[in-house]
C-alpha cells in the first residue's frame, strides 16, 4: 500500500515537474512570439504573410472539426494563429494608427480602439475557455451503491406563473426516476406570501389569497409540499433560502416554474455528487421547448437552426467545465445543501444569484460539474419585450458580479477560473462595443472625424485578416451551435436597451432589482413590437450616413479608399439593422405549447377495436401530429393513442380527440384529452419526460452551415419585414391622421 | 504629360551670348500645350522670358500666330499683348480673317534682367449686348509653337567682376551653355579627382536648370608666338612677347565673349598669368578678368577673353578656392578677385541638406520662400508651392503630411467659385465657396497621406476659380471685379518623421535628385570612373548636372581613373565597349562590352515604358529571364545602365554610361543633360541617340533597397518588408511551438480530470 502511494506521489511530482518545464518553455516561446508580433513590416509584406496565415487557419480549422487523432492539436494551432493575428492587429492599431487631428477625433479614435480591444479580449478569452470543451461520460444512478443514494429536495420557486405551468412541472418532478422515499417536491410560492396577502391593494390581496389556496390544493392533489414565507425578501434567492431552512434533503434541485424535468434528471446528475464530495453543483442545459422571439419572428426556423441557448450550453459550459468554472444557471441544477450552507444559501447580492453563488463556492475550492444532456425543458420568453427584460437582468447581474465580487482578483480562484468568469462576464459588456461599431462610421461619414488612420492596403493587410481570422475561429469553435451573423443580430437587438441598463449598474452597482421574466404568454395577434422606435432611428441615421458617404466619395477624392471601407462597414451595419426588423414583427402564436419533432411509433385504436399503426411527426403536452400507415382509414373523433413511454418504461394509452385528418398525406392531428390523474401524468411523462427526445432534437438542429449561406439567409429573411414595418408605420400614421381629422370635424 | 512637353519645349531653348539676333519659339518659354485656347469673354495667359543681367536688349519683337472664332464681332474682340504689364500691341479679331500672323515690336526699354512677363489677353464678344460669357463660340487660339520671339542682345560688361559670373552663367537669354576649363598638363591628375568636378559643379549651379557642357583642355607647355606678318620687323619685341604671354593665346580661336576657366596652382598657371595676378595669389584665390588683347599692325591676333582663375599656392588651396566658387553668392563680390581665408560649415552632408526639407519638421510657406498672394476679379488662379524632400524619403504607409492653410475669399462669390488643392498633380481636396459673405480660414487642416509625396521635388497647387454671382436678370451681368481670393504665407506644412531609404536602381529618382550621389542622412563618397582622359569632358559635364539636380555642390563626388574592389559608394562608369570589358558584369541583366548581353523584350516580360512615364503604380515586376549575347557596335547611340554595385561591400548603385567612342559619349552626354532628355530618364536601362527622345526605356535589373537607416527599427522594418517569408517562417515555427506546448498542457489537464472520475 505504501509502495503504491509512493509511486503515485512520484508520478504526481514528475507531472508537476514536466508541467513547470513546459510552462517555462511556453512563456519564453510566447515572449518571443510577442516580440515577433511587434516587429514592423510594410503593408504589402504583411498582406502576403496574413494571407498565408489565413490559409493555414482555414486548413487547420477544417481538420479540427473532423474527428481524428490530432483534432485538438489542429484546433490549438488554429487558435494560437488566430489569436496571434488579433494581437498583431491590435499592436499595429495601437502603435501606428491612433493619431487624431482634433480633440473630437481623438475621442472617436480611442472609443473605437477601446471597442476593438474589448472585442479582442473577449475573443481571446473565448478561445481559451473553449479550446478544450470537456465531454463527461454518462454516469447512472443504477451504477451507484444504493445506501449511498442521498435524499433530494426538488424546489420549484414561483412568483406569478400560472397554475397550469406549475402543474406540469410538479407532475414531471413526481415522475423523477429516483427512490420515492428519498425525493420530496416543494413548491416555493412567492406570489402568496403574507406580505402579498396583507397588501393594501385589496384586489391584489384577494388574488394572492386565491393563488395561495389554489396552489395549496394543487400541491395536496399532486403530493408536493407548498411553501410560502412572510415577506418577499431577496426575490428568488430569498425564496429558495427560506425553503432551505425548512427542508432537510442532502441535495437540492432548483427548477424554475416552467422548467419541466425529464424522468432521468436525478439518475444522471446525482451520481456526480456521490462520486466526489467536493462537487457543489451539477448543472444541466436549459432546453427551450419554444422559440424565443428572434427564432420565431425572424428565422421561423426553430427546428432547423441551433437555438441561442445551444451555443452556451452546447459549447461554452463544456469549455468552462474543463476549466472548473461551469456555473449555476438558476435552474436545472443539483446543489449540495452542505456547501450551500457554507455561503448562507443562494447569494443575493446581485440579481444573477445563480452565477454569484457558484462564484462564492468556487472561491472556497469546491467543484462544479456540467452534464451535457438536455433534461429540463423550459419556456423562452415569447415576446421581444420579455426577451429584452430577461437579457437586461442577465447583463446587469453579471456586471454587478464584476463590480461587487471582482472575479479577476478574487481570492481562492485559480487563474483559469478567473479567465472563465471574466469571459462569461465580459461578454455582457458587448453593448458598449456594439454601439461604437454601429455608430462609428457616422463619425467619419457625417462628421468627418478621422477615426481610422490607415490606408486601404493596410486595412487589407491588417484589419481584414484579423476580422476573417476571428470569424474562422468563431466558426471552428461554435460553428455547430451558432450560425454566422446570428450573434451580431442578437447583440444589435439587445445593445440599445442593455447599454442603458449597464450604465445604471456602473453608476449604482447595488441598485438593480430582480424582475421575473414573463413566460407562457400567448400572442393572439401579430403586431409591431413597441420597442421598434429605437431601431427606426438607427436605420434612419445609418441611411443618412450612407448618403453622406456617397457625397463624401464624390467630393473628397483624397479619402476615397477610406470612404469605401467605412461605407462597406456602414452598409454591413445597415443590413443587419434592416434584418432585425423581422424580429420586431411579433408573429401570432395561438398554440399554448410548442410542438417539437418526435418519431415514436404509435398505434391509434378505436373503441371498436380498429387499429392503425403510425409514426409521430411532432408532439406537445397538448397534442400530437402523426402520419398513419395503410389505406382506407376512417377514424372516429375519439380514439386511444398507444405508445411506448421511455420515461416511465411502460406503454401508455392516451385518450385523444381527432382534430384533423388529411386523407392525402395521411397526417392526423390529435389533442390529448386526459381525464384521470394517471392519464394526466401519462401525458406529461410521454410528452415531456424523455430526455432522449430533447437530445435527438438538439442534435438535429445543431449543424454547421457555410458563412455565405448564413449571410444569404440573414439577408433573405430581413428584407420583407422592412416593408411590412413601413406599411404598418404608414397605416398607423394614416390612422392617427384620420382620428385627428374626425375629432376636428366633430368639433 | 505636361511635364514632358514642358521639358521638351525647354530643350529648344538654347541661347547664344553674342550680340547677334536670336529667334526662339515661344514654346521655349512656355510649359503648356503648343496651342493655347482662350475662352470666354476675357482670358489671358502669361509667358515668362528670362534675361541675363549682363546683357541688354537692343531690339526685339514677338510674332504671333493667332486663330479666332468667326463668331467674334469686330471692334469689341481683341487680343492685347503686354510686356511687363505695358501694352505693346492690340490685335483686332476679324471674323472675315480668322487666322492671322502679327509682329509686335517689344520696346527695348521694357526689358529687364531676370524674368520678363509676356501677357496675351483677349476680350471676346459675339454681340454688342447680352453676351453669355460661357458661350462656346467665344474663343481664340495662339499657336505658341509657331509664334516666335526675336531678340538682339548686347553684352554690357565694362569692368568684369565676380558679381558678373551670375550673368555669364545664367539660365536666361544670353547665358553661357558651354565652358572650357584649362589645367596644366602635369597636374591634371591631381586636380581632376576633387577640384575640377567642384569647379564644374560651381559653374553648372549658376546655370540652375540650363545644361552646361564642360570641356577640359590642357594648357600647352609653352607658347609659340605667331609668325610676324610685318615686313618691317623680323622679331617680336620684349613688350610684345610679354603682352602675348598674358593674352588668352591658348584659346585657339574660341569665342572670346565667353568665360573660360583656368585651374591650378600659381606655379602651374604662371605661364599665362600676369605678374600682378601672380603676386596677388597668396592662398585660395578666385579671380575673374579680361585678358589683354594682342595686336600687331593694328590687327588683333589674340582677342581679349573673360577668364576665371581658380588658384592657390598648393593644390589644397586650389580646392578651397573651388569650394568657395561652388558656394559663393556672386552678388556679394563686386570685385574682380577674392582670397579665401577660411570656410566653415562647408561639409558635404550639410550642403546636401540645405535645399531639402527635414522630415518631422513644420515649415511655413514663408520659410519656403512663398509670398502671400491676393487674386482679384473673375477667373482661374493658381498658386504653386514647391519644395524638395529628401530623395530617400521613406515613411510608413499610414504616415501623413499636415497642411495648415490660411486663406480667405471675399463676399459676393457666385456659383462655380471653388478651390482645389492638388499634390503632385493629384487632386486631394476641394472646397466650394458657398458663403455669400465670404469666409476666412485659419489653420484649415488637411491631412494628406504621405504616399502622395515623393523623394525630390514636390508641388502643392492651390487653384481657385472665382465666378461672379448671377444677376438673375437677362443681359445684366454682374462684374467680378469685387471678387477676392487670398492665400497667406503663414500657411504651413508639417512633415512626418521619415527614414531614408530608396528603391534602386531608379534613373527617375537619379534624374530628379541626383540620388544616390546626393543623399540626405549622409554623404558617402561617390565616383565617376573614366578609363582615360578622353572621357574627362563627359565626367565633368555629368558632375555639373548632378549638382544642378541636387541643387547643391557634391563635395564627395570624385572623378577617378582606376577601379578597385575598395571602391565604395555610388559609381558612374564611363566608357566604350572596349573599356567596359574590364568591368564585372556577369550578374547584370544587360551588359555592355565588346560582347553585349541584351535583354530583348521578346525574351522577357519587359515593357518599353516604366512607371514614372506611364503613371502605372502597380509595382508589377518586369522580369528578366533571357538575354541574347551578341557582338556588335553601339553605333551613335549611348547606353545608360543602372544596377546594384557588384563589388561594393555595402549595397550601392553602379551606373554605366557607354558609347562607341569618347567623342560619341561626350555628344550623348550633352544630349542627356538637356532638359528634355534628362526629364525622361526612368527605369534602369536607357538608350538614346539624340537630345529629343529616348530610344528605349526599360527596367531590367532586380530592384533593391538602398537605405541609410538611422535606427534599428527602420532597418528591421525594411528587412522584414523585403523578406516577409523569414518573418512568416519564424512566426509559424513559434506558433507551432506554443501550440504544441499548450496542447500538451491541455492534454495533461484533461487526463487529470478524467483520472478524477
The counted number of beta strands of chain A is 19
Strand element count of chain B: 40
Helicity level of chain B: 10-25%
**What is the average of the pLDDT values of chain A?**
87
CATH class of the largest domain in chain B: Alpha Beta
CATH H level, superfamily name of the largest domain in chain B: Chitobiase/beta-hexosaminidase domain 2-like
Work out the radius of gyration of chain B: 31 Å
Portion of residues in helices of chain A?
55-70%
Write the CATH architecture name of the largest domain in chain B. Answer: 2-Layer Sandwich
Let me know the average pLDDT of chain B.
Answer: 86
Largest sheet properties of chain B: 7 strands, mixed
Oligomer: heterodimer
Quick recap:
The complex is a heterodimer of chains A (747) and B (757). Chain A is α+β, with helices and mostly antiparallel strands.
Can you characterise this structure?
With about 750 residues, chain A is of the alpha+beta class. Chain A has 23 helices and 19 strands. In chain A, the strands form four sheets. A seven-stranded mixed beta sheet of chain A has the order 3-2-1-4-8-6-9, with helices on both faces. In chain A, strands 14-15-16-19-18-17 form a six-stranded antiparallel beta barrel. Chain A has a three-stranded mixed beta sheet with strand order 5-10-7. In chain A, strand 14 and strand 15 form a beta hairpin. Chain A is globular and about 85 Å long. The termini of chain A are far apart. Chain B folds into five domains: about 20-155, Jelly Rolls, CATH 2.60.120; about 160-225 and about 240-345, no CATH class; about 360-495, Galactose-binding domain-like (Jelly Rolls); about 500-710, Chitobiase/beta-hexosaminidase domain 2-like (Chitobiase, domain 2, 2-Layer Sandwich); about 725-755. Chain B is built from 17 helices and 40 strands. The longest helix of chain B has about 35 residues, at about 725-755. The model of chain B is unreliable at about 1-20 and about 610-620 (pLDDT under 50).
Amino acid at each position: 500500500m505504501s509502495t503504491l502511494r509512493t509511486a503515485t506521489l512520484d508520478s504526481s511530482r514528475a507531472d508537476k515537474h514536466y508541467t513547470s518545464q513546459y510552462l517555462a518553455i511556453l512563456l519564453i516561446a510566447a515572449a518571443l512570439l510577442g516580440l515577433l508580433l511587434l516587429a514592423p513590416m510594410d503593408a504589402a509584406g504583411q498582406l502576403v504573410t496574413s494571407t498565408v496565415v489565413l490559409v493555414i487557419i482555414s486548413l487547420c480549422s477544417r481538420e479540427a472539426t473532423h474527428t481524428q487523432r490530432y483534432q485538438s492539436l489542429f484546433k490549438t494551432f488554429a487558435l494560437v494563429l488566430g489569436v496571434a493575428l488579433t494581437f498583431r492587429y491590435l499592436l499595429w492599431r495601437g502603435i501606428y494608427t491612433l493619431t487624431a487631428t482634433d480633440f473630437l477625433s481623438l475621442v472617436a479614435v480611442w472609443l473605437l480602439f477601446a471597442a476593438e480591444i474589448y472585442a479582442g479580449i473577449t475573443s481571446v478569452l473565448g478561445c481559451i475557455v473553449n479550446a478544450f470543451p470537456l465531454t463527461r461520460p454518462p454516469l447512472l444512478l443504477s451504477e451507484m451503491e444504493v445506501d449511498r443514494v442521498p435524499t433530494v429536495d426538488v424546489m420549484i420557486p414561483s412568483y406569478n406563473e400560472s397554475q397550469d405551468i406549475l402543474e406540469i412541472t410538479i407532475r414531471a418532478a413526481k415522475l423523477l426516476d429516483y427512490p420515492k422515499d428519498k425525493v420530496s417536491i416543494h413548491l416555493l410560492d412567492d406570489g402568496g406570501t403574507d406580505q402579498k396577502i396583507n397588501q393594501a391593494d385589496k384586489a391584489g390581496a384577494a388574488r394572492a389569497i386565491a393563488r395561495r389556496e389554489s396552489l395549496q390544493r394543487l400541491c395536496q392533489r399532486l403530493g408536493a409540499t407548498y411553501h410560502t414565507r412572510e415577506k418577499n425578501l431577496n426575490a428568488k434567492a430569498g425564496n429558495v433560502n427560506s425553503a432551505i431552512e425548512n427542508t432537510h434533503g442532502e441535495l437540492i434541485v432548483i427548477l424554475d416554474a416552467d422548467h419541466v424535468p425529464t424522468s432521468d434528471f436525478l439518475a444522471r446528475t446525482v451520481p456526480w455528487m456521490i462520486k466526489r464530495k467536493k462537487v457543489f453543483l451539477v448543472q444541466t442545459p436549459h432546453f427551450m421547448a419554444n422559440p424565443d422571439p428572434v427564432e420565431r419572428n425572424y428565422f421561423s426556423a426553430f427546428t432547423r437552426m441551433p437555438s441561442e441557448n445551444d451555443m452556451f450550453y452546447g459549447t461554452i459550459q463544456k469549455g468552462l467545465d474543463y476549466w472548473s468554472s461551469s456555473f449555476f444557471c438558476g435552474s436545472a441544477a443539483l446543489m449540495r445543501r452542505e456547501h450551500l450552507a457554507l455561503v448562507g444559501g443562494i447569494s443575493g447580492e446581485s440579481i444573477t444569484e445563480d452565477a454569484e453563488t457558484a462564484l462564492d463556492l468556487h472561491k472556497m475550492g469546491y467543484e462544479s460539474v456540467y452534464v451535457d444532456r438536455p433534461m429540463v425543458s423550459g419556456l423562452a420568453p415569447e415576446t421581444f419585450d420579455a426577451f429584452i427584460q430577461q437579457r437586461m437582468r442577465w447583463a446587469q447581474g453579471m456586471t454587478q458580479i464584476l463590480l461587487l465580487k471582482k472575479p479577476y482578483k478574487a481570492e481562492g480562484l485559480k487563474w483559469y477560473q478567473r479567465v472563465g468568469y471574466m469571459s462569461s462576464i465580459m461578454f455582457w459588456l458587448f453593448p458598449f462595443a456594439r454601439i461604437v461599431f454601429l455608430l462609428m462610421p457616422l463619425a467619419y461619414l457625417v462628421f468627418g472625424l478621422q477615426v481610422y488612420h490607415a490606408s486601404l492596403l493596410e486595412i487589407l493587410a491588417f484589419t481584414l485578416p484579423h476580422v476573417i481570422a476571428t470569424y474562422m475561429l468563431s466558426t471552428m469553435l461554435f460553428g455547430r451551435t451558432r450560425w454566422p451573423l446570428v450573434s451580431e443580430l442578437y447583440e444589435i437587438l439587445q445593445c440599445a436597451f442593455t447599454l442603458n441598463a449597464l450604465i445604471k449598474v456602473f453608476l449604482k452597482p447595488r441598485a438593480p432589482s430582480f424582475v421575473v421574466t414573463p413566460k407562457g404568454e400567448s400572442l393572439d395577434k401579430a403586431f409591431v413590437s413597441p420597442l421598434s422606435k429605437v431601431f427606426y432611428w438607427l436605420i434612419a441615421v445609418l441611411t443618412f450616413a450612407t448618403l453622406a458617404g456617397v457625397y463624401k466619395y464624390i467630393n473628397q477624392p483624397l479619402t476615397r479608399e477610406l470612404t469605401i471601407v467605412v461605407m462597406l462597414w456602414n452598409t454591413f451595419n445597415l443590413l443587419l439593422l434592416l434584418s432585425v426588423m423581422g424580429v420586431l414583427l411579433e408573429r401570432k402564436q395561438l398554440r399554448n405549447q410548442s410542438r417539437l419533432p418526435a418519431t415514436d411509433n404509435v398505434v391509434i385504436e378505436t373503441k371498436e377495436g380498429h387499429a392503425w399503426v403510425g409514426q409521430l411527426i411532432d408532439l406537445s403536452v397538448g397534442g400530437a401530429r402523426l402520419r398513419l400507415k395503410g389505406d382506407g382509414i376512417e377514424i372516429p373523433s375519439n380514439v386511444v393513442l398507444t405508445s411506448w413511454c421511455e420515461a416511465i418504461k411502460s406503454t401508455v394509452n392516451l385518450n385523444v380527440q381527432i382534430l384533423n385528418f388529411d386523407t392525402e398525406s395521411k397526417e392526423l392531428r390529435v389533442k390529448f384529452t386526459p381525464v384521470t390523474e394517471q392519464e394526466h401524468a401519462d401525458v406529461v411523462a410521454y410528452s415531456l419526460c424523455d430526455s432522449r427526445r430533447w437530445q435527438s432534437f438538439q442534435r438535429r438542429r445543431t449543424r454547421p452551415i457555410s458563412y455565405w449561406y448564413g449571410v444569404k439567409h440573414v439577408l433573405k429573411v430581413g428584407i420583407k419585414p422592412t416593408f411590412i414595418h413601413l406599411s404598418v408605420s404608414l397605416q398607423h400614421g394614416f390612422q392617427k391622421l384620420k382620428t385627428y381629422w374626425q375629432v376636428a370635424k366633430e368639433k | 504629360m505636361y511635364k514632358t512637353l514642358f521639358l521638351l519645349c525647354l530643350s529648344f531653348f538654347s541661347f547664344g551670348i553674342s550680340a547677334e539676333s536670336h529667334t526662339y519659339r515661344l514654346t521655349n518659354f512656355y510649359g503648356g500645350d503648343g496651342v493655347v485656347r482662350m475662352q470666354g469673354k476675357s482670358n489671358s495667359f502669361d509667358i515668362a522670358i528670362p534675361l541675363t543681367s549682363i546683357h541688354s536688349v537692343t531690339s526685339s519683337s514677338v510674332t504671333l500666330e493667332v486663330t479666332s472664332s468667326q463668331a467674334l464681332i469686330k471692334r469689341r474682340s481683341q487680343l492685347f499683348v503686354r510686356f511687363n504689364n505695358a501694352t505693346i500691341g492690340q490685335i483686332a479679331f476679324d471674323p472675315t480673317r480668322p487666322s492671322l500672323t502679327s509682329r509686335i515690336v517689344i520696346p527695348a526699354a521694357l526689358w529687364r534682367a531676370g524674368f520678363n512677363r509676356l501677357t496675351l489677353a483677349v476680350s471676346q464678344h459675339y454681340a454688342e449686348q447680352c453676351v453669355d460669357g460661357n458661350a462656346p463660340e467665344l474663343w481664340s487660339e495662339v499657336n505658341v509653337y509657331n509664334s516666335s520671339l526675336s531678340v538682339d542682345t548686347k553684352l554690357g560688361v565694362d569692368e568684369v567682376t565676380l558679381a558678373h559670373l551670375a550673368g555669364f552663367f545664367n539660365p536666361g537669354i544670353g547665358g553661357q551653355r558651354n565652358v572650357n576649363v584649362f589645367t596644366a598638363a602635369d597636374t591634371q591628375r591631381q586636380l581632376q579627382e576633387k577640384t575640377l568636378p567642384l569647379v564644374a559643379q560651381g559653374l553648372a549651379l549658376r546655370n540652375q536648370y540650363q545644361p552646361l557642357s564642360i570641356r577640359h583642355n590642357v594648357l600647352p607647355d609653352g607658347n609659340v608666338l605667331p609668325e610676324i606678318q610685318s615686313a618691317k620687323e623680323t622679331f617680336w619685341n620684349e613688350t610684345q612677347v610679354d603682352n602675348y604671354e598674358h593674352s588668352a593665346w591658348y584659346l585657339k580661336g574660341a569665342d572670346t565673349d565667353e568665360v573660360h576657366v583656368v585651374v591650378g596652382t600659381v606655379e602651374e598657371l604662371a605661364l599665362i598669368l600676369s605678374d600682378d595676378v601672380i603676386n596677388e595669389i597668396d592662398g585660395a584665390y578666385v579671380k575673374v578678368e579680361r585678358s589683354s588683347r594682342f595686336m600687331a599692325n593694328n590687327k588683333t591676333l589674340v582677342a581679349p577673353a573673360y577668364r576665371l582663375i581658380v588658384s592657390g599656392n598648393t593644390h589644397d588651396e586650389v580646392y578651397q578656392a573651388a569650394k568657395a566658387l561652388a558656394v559663393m553668392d556672386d552678388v556679394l563680390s563686386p570685385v574682380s578677385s577674392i582670397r579665401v581665408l577660411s570656410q566653415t560649415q562647408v561639409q558635404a552632408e550639410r550642403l546636401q541638406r540645405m535645399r531639402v526639407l527635414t522630415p518631422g519638421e513644420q515649415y511655413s510657406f514663408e520659410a519656403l520662400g512663398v509670398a502671400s498672394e491676393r487674386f482679384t476679379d473673375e477667373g482661374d488662379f493658381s498658386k504653386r508651392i514647391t519644395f524638395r524632400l529628401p530623395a530617400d524619403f521613406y515613411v510608413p504607409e499610414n504616415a501623413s503630411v499636415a497642411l495648415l492653410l490660411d486663406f480667405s475669399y471675399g463676399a459676393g462669390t457666385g456659383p462655380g467659385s471653388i478651390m482645389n488643392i492638388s499634390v503632385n498633380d493629384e487632386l486631394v481636396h476641394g472646397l466650394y465657396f458657398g458663403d455669400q459673405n465670404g469666409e476666412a480660414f485659419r489653420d484649415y487642416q488637411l491631412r494628406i497621406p504621405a504616399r502622395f509625396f515623393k523623394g525630390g521635388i514636390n508641388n502643392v497647387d492651390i487653384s481657385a476659380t472665382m465666378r461672379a454671382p448671377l444677376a438673375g436678370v437677362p443681359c445684366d451681368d454682374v462684374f467680378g471685379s469685387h471678387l477676392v481670393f487670398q492665400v497667406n504665407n503663414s500657411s504651413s506644412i508639417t512633415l512626418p518623421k521619415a527614414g531614408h531609404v530608396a528603391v534602386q536602381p531608379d534613373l527617375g529618382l537619379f534624374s530628379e535628385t541626383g540620388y544616390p550621389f546626393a543623399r540626405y542622412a549622409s554623404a558617402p563618397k561617390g565616383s565617376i570612373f573614366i578609363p582615360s582622359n578622353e572621357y574627362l569632358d563627359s565626367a565633368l559635364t555629368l558632375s555639373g548636372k548632378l549638382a544642378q539636380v541636387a541643387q547643391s555642390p557634391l563635395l564627395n563626388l570624385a572623378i577617378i581613373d582606376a577601379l578597385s574592389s575598395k571602391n565604395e559608394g555610388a559609381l558612374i562608369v564611363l566608357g566604350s565597349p572596349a573599356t567596359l570589358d574590364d568591368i564585372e558584369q556577369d550578374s547584370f541583366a544587360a551588359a555592355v562590352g565588346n560582347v553585349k548581353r541584351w535583354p530583348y523584350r521578346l525574351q522577357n516580360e519587359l515593357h518599353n515604358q516604366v512607371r514614372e512615364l506611364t503613371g502605372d503604380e502597380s509595382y508589377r515586376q518586369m522580369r528578366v529571364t533571357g538575354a541574347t549575347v551578341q557582338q556588335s557596335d553601339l553605333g551613335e547611340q549611348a547606353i545608360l545602365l543602372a544596377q546594384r554595385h557588384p563589388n561594393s561591400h555595402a549595397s550601392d548603385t553602379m551606373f554605366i554610361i557607354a558609347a562607341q567612342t569618347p567623342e560619341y559619349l561626350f555628344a550623348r552626354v550633352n544630349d542627356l543633360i538637356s532638359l528634355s532628355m534628362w526629364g525622361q530618364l526612368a527605369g534602369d536601362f536607357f538608350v538614346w541617340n539624340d537630345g529629343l527622345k529616348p530610344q528605349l526605356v526599360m527596367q531590367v535589373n532586380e530592384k533593391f533597397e538602398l537605405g541609410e537607416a538611422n535606427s534599428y527599427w527602420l532597418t528591421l522594418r525594411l528587412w522584414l518588408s523585403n523578406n516577409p517569408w523569414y518573418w512568416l517562417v519564424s512566426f509559424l515555427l513559434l506558433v507551432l511551438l506554443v501550440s504544441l506546448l499548450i496542447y500538451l498542457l491541455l492534454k495533461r489537464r484533461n487526463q487529470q480530470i478524467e483520472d478524477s472520475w
